[in-house]
Amino acid sequence: MKQGTVLAVCLSEKTGTRKTNVGWARLVVEHGLEGDAHAGPWHRQVSFLAQESADKVRGADKVRAQGLEIGPGDFAENILTAGLELFSLPLGTRLRVGPEVLVEVTQIGKECHTGCAIRQLTGDCVMPREGIFARVLRGGIVQTGDIVEVDEQSSIKEE
To answer: Percent of the chain having pLDDT more than 90?
Structure first.
């Protein structure tokens, strides 16, 4: 079974800004993370990024050399994970997050607006290439340390 771990749960009050790691949040069906600026009744309700993808950012070493850190939420991701190659999952894949939550992958990558905070800082952003977006099918609490696993039972797109 393919699985990873939640490293951070992040929210922001405004779009286009870094998110803050809050440790846990409630995912609401067909909405996203409660209190997040990006949540709503569209197909990109919640965003995921793997730490392995974040580590690839060009310019990150230069930023760290200046004494600045790149951390959870800096790519405007809601959920930062480790151990699962998210961008290789096919559309329609369902992920179980912790004991309650079920999401369905709706988009891989996105068009990035040039003014995002991380692109201004590093000159690069990995979300357009390797971030994924999902809609919430079953809500609940998601928190740091939760297991994220591909739901093999329901990952086949229904005809």
So the answer is: 54
